[in-house]
Amino acid sequence: MSVTPPHRSVRVDLGDRSYDILIGPGLIARAGAEIAARRPQVRCAVITDTNVASAHLGALTASLEKAGIDAEPLVLEPGEKTKCFDELIRVCDHTLGARLERGDVVLALGGGVIGDLAGFAAGIVRRGMRFIQVPTSLLAQVDSSVGGKTGINVSHGKNLIGVFHQPDLVLADTDVLDSLPLREFRAGYAEMAKYGLIDRPDFFAWLEANWREVFSGGEARIHAIAKSCQAKADVVAADERESGARALLNLGHTFGHALEAATGYDGKRLVHGEGVAIGMVLAHQFSARMNLASPDDADRVERHLKEVGLPTRMSDIEGGLPGTDILMTHIAQDKKVQRGALTFILTHGVGRSFIADDVPQDEVFRFLEDKRAS
Amino acid sequence: MSVTPPHRSVRVDLGDRSYDILIGPGLIARAGAEIAARRPQVRCAVITDTNVASAHLGALTASLEKAGIDAEPLVLEPGEKTKCFDELIRVCDHTLGARLERGDVVLALGGGVIGDLAGFAAGIVRRGMRFIQVPTSLLAQVDSSVGGKTGINVSHGKNLIGVFHQPDLVLADTDVLDSLPLREFRAGYAEMAKYGLIDRPDFFAWLEANWREVFSGGEARIHAIAKSCQAKADVVAADERESGARALLNLGHTFGHALEAATGYDGKRLVHGEGVAIGMVLAHQFSARMNLASPDDADRVERHLKEVGLPTRMSDIEGGLPGTDILMTHIAQDKKVQRGALTFILTHGVGRSFIADDVPQDEVFRFLEDKRAS
Ligand SMILES: NC(=O)c1ccc[n+]([C@@H]2O[C@H](COP(=O)([O-])OP(=O)(O)OC[C@H]3O[C@@H](n4cnc5c(N)ncnc54)[C@H](O)[C@@H]3O)[C@@H](O)[C@H]2O)c1
Ligand SMILES: NC(=O)c1ccc[n+]([C@@H]2O[C@H](COP(=O)([O-])OP(=O)(O)OC[C@H]3O[C@@H](n4cnc5c(N)ncnc54)[C@H](O)[C@@H]3O)[C@@H](O)[C@H]2O)c1
Ligand SMILES: [Zn+2]
Ligand SMILES: [Zn+2]
After folding, report:
1. What is the mean pLDDT of residues B276-290?
2. Are residues A243 and A320 in the same domain?
3. Fewest Cβ atoms nearer than 10 Å: which of A6, A203, B286, B292?
4. Predicted confidence band at B245 (pLDDT cuts at 50, 70, 90)?
């Protein structure tokens, strides 16, 4: 009797740091078996947040324990503020206190916040432990759990402290997304659309036609997540440490990060993927203004993101924004700055993004001044 | 007119992470020129401690500024306690506050404490900046500045949090050692002797004959430092991430770390190299007790280290030690533990060390009980 696996598998090709992303339903229940098959007798520190814990921690620890894997859970507060030095110290302390050794595992069960924080801890405890991602938000499944970027925020800016530390395995259980608030699902969808906008125009067109099925679940959702993971895996394999092409993944992110900073990383006002959605529209509009792309493409992008329910304009952010000079400071402090000149991801149109250095600061300033009013 | 460089050069071979160690007099005065030749227009955060700053910071910053390199100094308290999360955060904050970019440099001017702390910060700020070591203690010149191990101490133990982050350049100015307290020079000498004890019996014999010249300076000192750097570079090139042979560098360190922990990392009672000296004698004595080596070798090692003025017995530590059960806890928490079995570096004699796993805990316990009285 032969059984086909119930999930898709995407390989991230990084030599001796290669790993698999499994995508499909029921993977939390299979987590223990999948991990034990790869690393028998391993022990796990399971890092999660209260939202995810109440819905999925029990199922995960049951699955681990059934496979003979000792699980030591640590449940943190949800939200972007958890990505800070204090919580990093807590995760390190928990992992050491549980007497985990170098070959043992830090497992992130949660969204990008938990993944980035736990991954950073895994990268520095004992100078690098094993790391497994069980992403539970759409954003984490299609983006943050793949590629090994980890980090925390500090007063100088977002994600300014961290390491590259690749996971050993990613288990993206597509069922868990049903407990995700719709707003968070939409935010993750923005990153999914991003892959189309960077260099896969066909995928963007497919999403325009099929986004409702992606939201409702089933095969279309699994397909779209696998496509997105493949897109990210390709970029990461070509440029693990973001010395070149990987920067394309920052489409919409320089503007987006500035908006997140300007709203004090207050998830009630703006979550990461929403900032990216507005940022991607701005990147297309700015490209049009610089005569690099047609304004029709910017309109098309805005139309689609708006249709799925994402914010697309700065004026969509409740509570107002600080002055444009403050936004510019956040943009300049963003880490994609080289020797003072601004580096942006701009585009020649849908699916035709490129890295532009030497973007004139004053052009960006005037553009933002004009746009914030609209 | 041809000029021979006034220094030796040792290459650490790590593919695209390879780098040079320059060893010789006057290198602080040449630092600006050496750095500018490799990375023109770079900016530097210079991390140091008050002891080193008063003797050498002025000379370094003058040299950097003469070469057109902007230097942003941060002067910390000296001592092992500085290797902690709070100071790590300070160094990160200083570096970001100075608006250094990814291609800019964190420069460590100091002993192993400053090197380990600043190197860790360099490894995590913007997920990895350039890093230059200007080691000023003998221990840092022959050991800690080479090989890319960085880290801090936490309540669970020493160096349990950190990253591997290779420097881009190491400048070991042999003149600066003249301001080093004799006790610290001796401590560094213990690590130098270690290379002979691991696998270079001729070098150990050379040190027995020439140690006075090494202490007094000049050619013998430069030679011994270059020999030591070469020994460390060879091990690091063969096993960058300590998955195998690099563990040999821990000769004397499992015992040594336990003694440091047991004295609360109080440098007045015991500095790192002194712990290593006692630890190396213990490793040789324990090997003899296990019938792996002749007791004559242990005596020879003890005689030499004692002759240069290093402590060689637990009873040499002022203020007494906690119970052997506490020492054993520190030994078991040491990161060289695999699945509960103790891994030690033992020896078949001078220059014939090897990695022993499965060392019985109770044998170690009884050995320590016997030895602490002697
Ligand atoms: N490392 C990378 O490459 C990378 C890439 C993109 C984004 N990020 C980071 O990811 C973070 C954003 O990720 P996120 O949007 O997943 O944020 P998040 O982790 O805060 O998750 C969003 C919210 O959804 C909740 N949640 C998650 N899964 C759930 C589930 N299955 N059921 C119910 N609630 C659930 C969380 O508790 C949280 O309240 C940001 O910090 C961003 O910087 C990192
Ligand atoms: N990263 C590694 O591979 C590695 C290897 C061995 C040791 N270490 C670490 O190194 C540390 C010990 O290094 P250390 O012995 O250099 O300690 P240290 O940095 O504390 O220096 C010892 C003392 O000498 C002073 N000093 C240093 N240079 C001086 C100079 N030229 N003139 C006057 N005073 C000077 C310092 O201020 C300090 O008081 C420990 O934390 C240990 O864990 C790391
Ligand atoms: Zn993103
Ligand atoms: Zn040492």
Report:
1. 98
2. yes
3. A6
4. confident
- The string of pLDDT tens digits covering residues A90-132 is 999 999 999 999 999 999 999 999 999 999 999 999 999 999 9
Domain that holds residue A257: 183-372
Same domain, A360 and A214: yes
CA distance B15 to B13: 6
Q: By the 8 A CB rule, do B61 and B49 touch?
A: no
One domain, residues A170 and A193: no
Q: Using the beta-carbon criterion (under 8 Å), do B163 and A160 form an inter-chain contact?
A: no
In a domain, B2, yes or no: no
Report the separation in Å between the CA atom of A272 and the middle of ligand 3, taken as the mean of its atom positions: 6
Active site residue B250: yes
Which ligand is the nearest neighbour of the Cα of B251?
4
Strand ranges inside chain B, DSSP E: 8-12, 19-24, 43-49, 70-76, 105-110, 130-135, 152-154, 157-161, 169-173, 337-338, 341-347, 353-359
Nearest CA to ligand 2 atom 21: B111
- Whichever domain contains B89, its CATH number is 3.40.50.1970
On whether both B196 and B270 belong to a single domain, the answer is: yes
Domain-embedded: residue A288: yes
Say if residue B347 is in the same domain as residue B204: yes
Closest ligand 1 atom, residue A151 Cα: 1
Check whether residue B205 and residue B338 sit in a common domain: yes
Report ipTM for this prediction. 0.91
Q: B7 catalytic, yes or no?
A: no
- pLDDT one-digit tens code per residue, B72-106: 999 999 998 999 999 999 999 999 999 999 999 99
What's the CA angle centered on B200, arms B255 and B300, to 5 degrees?
60
